[in-house]
Amino acid sequence: MAKNITIIGAGIVGITTASYLRRDGHDVTVVDMRPPGEYCSFGNAGILSPGSCVPQALPGVLGKVPGYLSDPLGPLAIRPGHFFKALPWFLRLVAASRLSRVEQIADALRPLLKQTFDAYLPLVQHANVADLIRQTGYVVAYDTRSGFQKDALPWQLRRERGVLMEELDSAGIRQKVPQLGGHYEAGLYLPEQGFVTNPERLTKSLAEQFQKDGGRIVQRKVLDIEVAPDGPRALVTDAGNMAVETLVICAGSHSNEFSAKFGDSVPLEAERGYHVTYSDPNFTLPMPVFLPQQKFFVTPMEMGLRIAGQSEFAGNDAEPNYARADVLATQMQKVFPGISNVDATKWMGRRPATPDSLPVIGPASKMPNVWYAFGHGHVGLCGGAPTGRLMADLIAGRPPSMDVAPFRATRF
Ligand SMILES: Cc1cc2nc3c(=O)[nH]c(=O)nc-3n(C[C@H](O)[C@H](O)[C@H](O)COP(=O)(O)OP(=O)(O)OC[C@H]3O[C@@H](n4cnc5c(N)ncnc54)[C@H](O)[C@@H]3O)c2cc1C
């Protein structure tokens, strides 16, 4: 039966969820204070990696925390002023890093991400933007063979879950990406992965198609939610109240502010990342490149080359620290000496990060007619369309294509 559904959040997760719900014939309204795709979904690395099922925290993470605190511009840093606020989240992250839990997380995430290309295809074809999606594979390049060997676990976890990869030596890396400067002793090629050539245009194009198909997007800030014992009543917004029947929370790193209204306390951090986009680099790459030792991706986008990475824990509201983007720019000069930084632009975005690297997908635990789809952390672009399709199944009462129990809000 068609429902009246309101979604908070017009990022990639909100828009793909809206698109799949609209395809089911529901009456769907998306509410966001910004135009579609202008928060975290704006400036990510664009990587579509069905193989990215390994959580952020692996065994041994505890020993690395002092380093995170002592190097404010390192690839992972906690701003000292935010440390005590984030401490409970980090304790959960450490608890999720034991091997048995890491295996469970990878088992839960792989079936979701495996659907990435398959779930995007009908949406991008319908919106006439299939050109945005490329399945070229990507290259992983390590400076040293010992660095590659130290990272054996995450690659083994992927391989055990059916992710295809080919080992590369120095010559093999150069052959796949001849433009790559520097010397890399070892690496991998992952043929089934790919990328989006412009993540902002992807979200905006799907949003435009959703509206052509009869969906509504309303630009308002949600300040509060009026709740009755049998479900949500209205969104209190900066432009008056909006009555709601079925509500879906896709508000990225702000989602737990809303889930708390319904009695679900979800530990969520804004894991802030940065990019620098070079609009006139004078060359492009045949596919994205990942440098795990430096922890960044370089992606060939339609607007130039983008380097993206960094994890900074400072809360949602702290000002960006663009010195972190400058660190990426310095890395970029090392990898591509002489790259032109004319018109290079910098950006900061907030990954909605749970401590176990799994999203929250499914119904609110105590309140009827409330659903969640948030917390995708590093894989929200890959996970967007599969989540949207899953949400449409769940809301329609169809059996979901995979086990969603690991994504429940009450797991924390
Ligand atoms: C540097 C970087 C690189 C990344 N690279 C990749 C990658 O290569 N591949 C990948 O899969 N993922 C990547 N990610 C992660 C990915 O970008 C995110 O997981 C994804 O964008 C999250 O989408 P979302 O829709 O959940 O949230 P968002 O895009 O943040 O959308 C949430 C929306 O909710 C709205 N909202 C919040 N509060 C309110 C309110 N009170 N009222 C109204 N609206 C509200 C916001 O305005 C926003 O539009 C990267 C992230 C970063 C920072």
Description:
It is a single chain. With 412 residues, the protein is an alpha/beta fold. The chain has a single domain, classed as FAD/NAD(P)-binding domain, CATH 3.50.50. It contains twelve helices and 21 strands. The strands form four sheets. Strands 4, 6, 7, 8, 15, 16, 17, 18 and 19 form a nine-stranded mixed sheet that branches. Strands 10-2-1-14-21-20 form a six-stranded mixed sheet. A hairpin with a 6-residue loop joins strand 20 and strand 21 (370-374). Helix 1 packs parallel to helix 9, helix 1 (12-23) packs parallel to helix 12 (380-396) and helix 5 crosses helix 12 (380-396). The longest helix has 17 residues, at 380-396. It starts with a strand and ends in a 16-residue tail after the last helix. Flavin-adenine dinucleotide (FAD) is lined by residues 8-14, 31-34, 39-41, 44-47, 221-222, 250-252, 254, 273-275, 308, 349, 351-352, 374, 376-382.
In short:
The chain is α/β, with parallel strands linked by helices. It has 12 helices and 21 strands.
Secondary structure: elements and pairs:
Layout (H helix, E strand, L loop, with lengths): L3 E5 L3 H12 L3 E6 L14 E2 L16 H6 L5 E3 L4 H13 L3 H15 L2 H11 L6 E2 L3 E5 L2 H6 L1 H9 L5 E4 H7 L9 E5 L3 E3 L2 H14 L3 E4 L2 E7 L2 E7 L2 E4 L2 E4 L5 H5 L9 E10 L10 E3 L4 E6 L2 E10 L9 H13 L9 E9 L6 E4 L6 E5 L5 H17 L16
Parallel strand pairs: 1-2, 1-14, 2-10, 4-18, 6-16, 14-21
Antiparallel strand pairs: 3-9, 5-9, 6-8, 7-8, 11-12, 12-13, 15-18, 15-19, 16-17, 17-18, 20-21
The protein binds flavin-adenine dinucleotide.
Flavin-adenine dinucleotide (FAD) binds next to α1, β2, β15, β19 and α12.
